[in-house]
Design a protein that fits this description.
44% strand; globular; five-stranded antiparallel beta sheet
């Protein structure tokens, strides 16, 4: 495979050997200075009002939900579903967790822009203080020609630019501060890709071109290839399961990276595409979609896939209805959740593959032909599951354990994408990133 281009490695990464310090000092300094200029691929940062904005102390963490619509983003309190803000934002916007419990990254014109949902925690010794403020679009933007996938795992936030193939690894705790990337490289060819960094600093990144995507490679902390596979046609999406097993989807199954090895898990059909996955660190099993018709203008599948990263087994679960790429989620205990076009939230036990319950939430609906068009979506956050319904401009909060829709609200806009923040200090496996390897922890 062609080599990836290593753009920069800042002082926030693994310390180089003493003999290499002088040789690295100049380029590291230059990279750090240039990263604040969006023309050089870094984050554009204007003076922030974040430190001086009026904030209110709360008794506990305040989770908040963000929903895109044609022309902006609406922010709701996750407990009351009351509207907190309506932020104008032009263009088709996608939302991604930033990884710090407070911000989202909006994939919009020009790059990944930090969206402050105005709820956070500050550590004070053995306890935290919780704060809220007005949500706002910040002036921190990580430039990208075509902002694509954002992956958060283990204290790292990885951005992939589909237009250039540039991969940026950021410290999740400081992602909204516009700091220089801790790690940056570029794939040999631009493509619709994805990357994820693990706790040992290994980086899994997809391979492909604008015409075809073929597989993945894994790099060590020094960007040396340690594993690779081109046996993944149409590679798309990723999910991290328990014990840092990574699953990426293919048109004929998946690739699993675990314990330093890549393993192909073959689909039962010659064409068995798994392009969207939902993982949980509480479960070794990854939920995925499953499509079998390569010629369909729009396939409406009625089966989902479950991949056991321990055994490499792939099983299929039949559902009472079809679903879409925004239908997959995981509950707090690792439950596999699928929002069906029958309007029900289907709850699957990932270990047994049994459909445990189907909770009626909204009316039956049909997937639109264009993927950008609004359709119902699902979000698991802070112990609840939230379901949107663009047809009725509504949002519903569901208790999966009791099967109760415990809160509903009608909006003034038709929601499209949904994401949210916990408003709490995000828990990261810092022990796996020791101080010598990561000075910026």
């Amino acid at each position: 495979m062609p080599a990836l281009t290593r753009t920069t490695r800042t002082a926030g990464r693994r310390r180089p050997p003493v003999a290499g310090l002088l040789a690295l000092a100049i380029p590291l300094t230059l990279a750090g200075c240039a990263s604040a200029d969006p023309a050089d691929g870094g984050a554009s940062v204007e003076p922030s009002a974040e430190d001086t904005a009026q904030a209110t102390e709360a008794a506990a963490a305040t989770a908040r939900i963000a929903l895109t619509y044609d022309g902006g983003v609406v922010v709701l309190d996750a407990q009351t579903l009351e509207q907190v803000a309506d932020l104008p934002l032009d263009g088709f916007t996608r939302l991604n967790p930033a990884g710090d419990g407070r911000h989202l990254l909006a994939s919009t014109t020009g790059g990944f822009r930090a969206l402050d949902l105005g709820a956070w925690a500050e550590a004070h010794g053995d306890h935290h203080h919780y704060w809220t403020s007005e949500p706002r679009l910040t002036d921190v933007t990580y430039a990208a020609e075509e902002p694509g996938h954002v992956v958060v795992h283990g204290g790292r936030t990885v951005l992939f630019d589909d237009g250039t193939g540039q991969v940026r690894v950021l410290d999740s705790a400081h992602v909204a501060e516009g700091e220089a990337p801790a790690r940056e490289l570029t794939t040999p060819s631009a493509h619709h890709g994805v990357a994820v960094e693990l706790s040992d600093d290994s980086l899994l990144v997809t391979e492909g071109t604008e015409e075809a995507r073929s597989g993945v490679r894994v790099l060590d902390a020094d960007d040396r290839e340690i594993a690779a596979s081109d046996d993944c046609p149409g590679v798309h999406g990723e999910a991290v399961a328990a014990d840092e097993a990574v699953v990426v989807g293919c048109e004929d199954g998946v690739l699993v990276y675990a314990d330093g090895e890549l393993t192909k898990v073959q689909a039962p059909d010659a064409y068995g595409r798994i392009g969207n996955q939902a993982g949980s660190e509480e479960s070794p099993i990854v939920l995925g979609d499953y499509k079998v018709d390569p010629d369909a203008e729009l396939e409406r599948p009625t089966r989902v896939s479950l991949v056991d990263t321990r055994t490499g087994e792939l099983s299929l679960v039949d559902l009472p209805s079809s679903y879409t790429f925004r239908s997959l989620a995981r509950g707090d205990d690792g439950e596999a959740l699928v929002l069906g076009t029958d309007g029900a939230l289907h709850v699957i036990d990932p270990e047994s593959g049994k459909l445990e319950s189907s909770i009626p939430v909204i009316d039956a609906w049909e997937e639109p032909l264009e993927w950008q068009e609004p359709r119902p979506a699902v979000l698991a956050l802070d112990g609840s599951v939230y379901v949107t319904d663009p047809a009725t401009k509504s949002v519903h909060a569901v208790d999966v354990e009791t099967g109760e829709v415990w809160k509903s609200v009608q909006l003034d806009v038709a929601p499209n994408e949904i994401s949210g923040v916990s408003g709490d200090a995000e828990a990261h496996d810092d022990e796996a990133h020791d101080d010598e390897a990561h000075e910026h922890e």
